[in-house]
């Protein structure tokens, strides 16, 4: 399939997990893919795994200067960005009593401020008719104990998506949110089996999502098949927040 043939795709936070799966799928569908990640070694390893001429740029998604540098490099090499995935994020458990100013600030700096600044930096490179996917979470729609700050950041992204979709509509730029449930990435593989079982028990389909399943949904939202879809939140959650 070549649903992304001729398109330039930037995946911020594409060196591991869901971001890497998205980058792999976009590359397999014909896109020229550029990924970012904080650790150069991890970025290089991901580029080799993606193949298809993918490129990597070491950058901190919470740094405005890094984001500007990434976009400038892409403009110099490719002139434009047709598909933008803002996937960089963090999640640490803390109950209401345990939340510290640092916990709060770090989550909002990476998950919300980073996404906003990432899109802002990319605006000059986004071509008319481009597509943007923000990585949300089903956590923003359910009461998940100990993850209130994380959930709040994802709810903020959902709100931003509505505004950005309206602001960028005159340029034909679509902005959507992709919200998975727990996904079976390397990070989740390190979670104790008892915790995994507890998580799975809340998912009607009886398992976690595969990264490839989330990537397939991202591909749809970024492709021309979703040309009349903007401002939505697409859940890939096995019914966790829907049933």
% residues in beta strands: 15-25%
User: What is the domain tally?
Assistant: 1
The end-to-end span amounts to: 33 Å
Helix content: 40-55%
CATH superfamily: NAD(P)-binding Rossmann-like Domain
Whole-number radius of gyration? Answer: 17 Å
Q: Identify the overall geometry.
A: globular
CATH fold title: Rossmann fold
Helix and strand run: EHEHEHEHEHEHHHE
CATH class: Alpha Beta
Number of strands: 7
Give the low-pLDDT segments: none
Q: For this entry, what is the oligomeric state of its chains?
A: single chain
- Biggest beta sheet summary: 7 strands, parallel
Domain Ketoreductase: 7-181
Protein name: NAD(P)-dependent dehydrogenase (Short-subunit alcohol dehydrogenase family)
InterPro entries: KR_dom (IPR057326), NAD(P)-bd_dom_sf (IPR036291), Sc_DH/Rdtase_CS (IPR020904), SDR_DHRS6-like (IPR051122), SDR_fam (IPR002347)
Keywords: Oxidoreductase
Describe this structure in words.
This protein has 243 residues and is α/β, with parallel strands linked by helices. Helices cover 43% and strands 17% of the residues. The protein has a single domain, classed as Rossmann fold (3-Layer(aba) Sandwich), CATH 3.40.50. It has a 7-stranded parallel β-sheet with strand order 3-2-1-4-5-6-7, with helices on both faces. Helix 3 runs parallel beside helix 4.
């Amino acid at each position: 399939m070549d649903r992304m043939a001729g398109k330039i795709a930037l995946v911020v936070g594409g060196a591991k997990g869901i971001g890497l799966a998205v980058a792999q799928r976009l590359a397999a569908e014909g896109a020229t893919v550029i990924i970012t990640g904080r650790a150069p070694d991890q970025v290089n390893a991901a580029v080799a795994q993606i193949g298809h001429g993918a490129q990597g740029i070491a950058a901190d998604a919470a740094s405005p200067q890094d984001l500007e540098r990434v976009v400038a490099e892409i403009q110099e090499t490719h002139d434009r960005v047709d598909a933008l995935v803002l996937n960089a994020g963090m999640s640490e458990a803390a109950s209401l009593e345990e939340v510290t100013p640092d916990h709060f600030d770090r989550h909002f700096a990476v998950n919300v401020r980073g996404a906003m600044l990432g899109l802002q930096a990319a605006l000059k490179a986004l071509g008319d008719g481009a597509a943007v996917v923000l990585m949300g979470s089903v956590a923003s729609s359910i009461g998940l104990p100990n993850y209130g700050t994380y959930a709040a950041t994802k709810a903020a992204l959902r709100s931003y998506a509505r505004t950005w979709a309206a602001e960028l509509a005159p340029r034909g730029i679509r902005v959507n949110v992709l919200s998975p449930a727990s996904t079976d990435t390397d990070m989740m593989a390190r979670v104790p089996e008892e915790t995994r079982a507890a998580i799975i028990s809340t998912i009607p389909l009886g398992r976690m999502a595969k990264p490839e399943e989330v990537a397939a949904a991202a591909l749809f939202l970024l492709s021309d098949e979703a040309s009349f879809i903007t401002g939505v939140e697409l859940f890939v959650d096995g019914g966790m927040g829907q049933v």
